[in-house]
Every structure is written in C-alpha cells, then in structure tokens.
Design a protein that fits this description.
Elements lengths: L1 E2 L8 H5 L4 H4 L11 E2 L16 E4 L13 H13 L3 E5 L23 E4 L11 E4 L1 H4 L18 H16 L6 H11 L7 E5 L2 E5 L3 H13 L5 E2 L6 E4 L7 H18 L1
Parallel strand pairs: 1-2, 3-4, 4-5
Antiparallel strand pairs: 5-6, 7-8, 8-10, 9-10
C-alpha cells in the first residue's frame, strides 16, 4: 500500500508504488495488488487491514510539492501497522540526512518505521543507495532468494567512502542544528507578491506560483542569473529550493535577491 502523490522512483517496483499515473501508464502492467490511499487523510487509514503486507510512505512528500502530513496521520499509520503486523517503510531518499532539520524526517512525527530507504545526500555527492532495518528483517535477504540483494556495482568502495566522509562531516560540523535557522532566513527574505504560498520543512521548500508557466519563467530566469532551482514532477505550479546544508547566510541572501529580482521582472 502507498499514497497518492508519492514518488518512489522509476524502476518497475518503485514505479508501481508511486502515485503519478502520467508517469506510470506507459509501463503498465506494473506490480499487482498495489492500493493507494489519499495522503494525509486520517480517515482513509481505516482501510488498512490484515491483508496488507507493507505500507511505504514519504514522511514528507517531495515531488508532490513538499506536502507535510499531520502528526496525527503519521502516528495513526504507525499504530495501525502495529495492530496488523504490517511493515512500515519510510522513503527518506529525498528527506534524509538533515534536509528537514532532523537526521530523518520521520523523527518529526515521533514514530519509528520498520524499514528506511536512503540515497541522494547519503552519498555526499557519490551515487549510492541503501536500506536500513532490523537484523531480523535483514536476514531475510540472505536466503529469499540467496544473494538476491546484490548488484554488480553495489557497494562500490568509492561510493561507500564518500558516504562515510559525508556522514562524518555532517556530525562534526553540526550542520543539522543549523538547518531550521537557515530555512527561516530563506522564508523571511523570499517576500514577493507573486508567491502564493511557501511550504517548507527545514531546507526543503516548495514555492507556489500562479501557474506552471510562471514557474518555468522563474526557473529559467534564475538559471540565467547563475542560480539553479528546479520544478516538481507532480506539482507543476511550484518550484523547488533545496540547497546544500553548508549554504551560508550570505549565499542565502544572494539567492533570495536573485529570485526576487527575477520575479520583479515578471511582475
């Protein structure tokens, strides 16, 4: 079971539990018996019962435009999974390693998933992904089927060294503790009449505009002035801001100056 609006990847299995039908239809048939519920709808969680093997969720939906669920929703989901012995999988590939102001986004909701998927920032710039779970669950990969978890280039030494170095710097420099104040500064300086809404958790932003055409103009205008931003796969009326955690206050001010300048030109 997964949630509408979710993005978990573009391979066969991950696409099967993603929520954007426009991205999926060309590749059907996908995995059978995948049911999707509305995201952040507390009442819809009552449809989860003993027939469900696992639930996968982004603790904060990324490509849907930084959609933040309520604590009530996340804690009820954890409770229902406990009641029916259902595995709860947290996809932390976009939100993990400090992006939201916590090491992992699930920490904002005072829950602990059974499985965590990690990637992106995990590698410190190198390509690597991972799965974190208990020793009991991890042991299943040893025989079901034997060596079924390995890949030709999985666990590459350079990628693992990059990941380890990145985690060490994250801890030594105390970068996560600075995320919220940096996010607040961004939010304070991004003050423009063209912005309809700012959705944010830490340094994970969705800046909502009037329409997709306006978003395209802002993204292209910022690029011309030396600032890279991006749009969302499933939220075309918003653009993304997700800077490195090492960004300085001076760089934040310059970034916001460029964004506001581009919007002034479009006003």
């Amino acid at each position: 079971m997964s949630f509408k609006g979710a993005y978990h990847g573009s391979t066969h299995g991950s696409l099967s539990v993603s929520g954007n039908e426009h991205k999926k239809y060309a590749f059907r048939p996908l995995l059978p018996d995948v049911v999707q519920l509305p995201f952040n709808d507390v009442d819809s969680l009552d449809f989860i019962d003993h027939r469900v093997a696992a639930v996968i969720i982004e603790p904060i939906q990324g490509d849907a435009g930084v959609r933040i669920p309520s604590i009530e929703f996340m804690q009820k989901l954890r409770s229902i999974c406990n009641d029916h012995c259902i595995l709860l999988i947290a996809d932390e590939i976009q939100t993990g390693f400090g992006r939201t102001g916590k090491l992992f986004a699930f920490e904002h909701f005072n829950i602990v998933p059974d499985i965590i998927t990690i990637g992106k920032a995990f590698g410190g710039g190198m390509p690597i992904g991972g799965l974190v779970t208990s020793q009991k669950l991890m042991s299943l990969f040893t025989h079901n089927p034997p060596l079924g978890h390995i890949t030709t280039f999985g666990g590459h030494p350079m990628s693992c060294a990059g990941a380890l170095a990145g985690i060490e710097i994250l801890q030594k420099k105390n970068l996560i503790a600075q995320v919220e104040s940096k996010g607040l500064l961004f939010e304070k300086l991004l003050d423009h009449q063209l912005i309809k809404q700012i959705r944010r958790k830490g340094l994970f932003f969705a800046i909502e505009m009037e329409n997709a055409e306006m978003v395209q103009k802002v993204v292209e205008g910022c690029k011309e002035k030396g600032l890279l931003s991006f749009w969302f796969l499933s939220c075309p009326e918003s653009f993304r801001i997700a800077p490195p955690l090492i960004i300085t206050e001076k760089q934040i001010a310059l970034s916001c100056e460029i964004i506001n300048e581009v919007m002034d030109e479009l006003s």
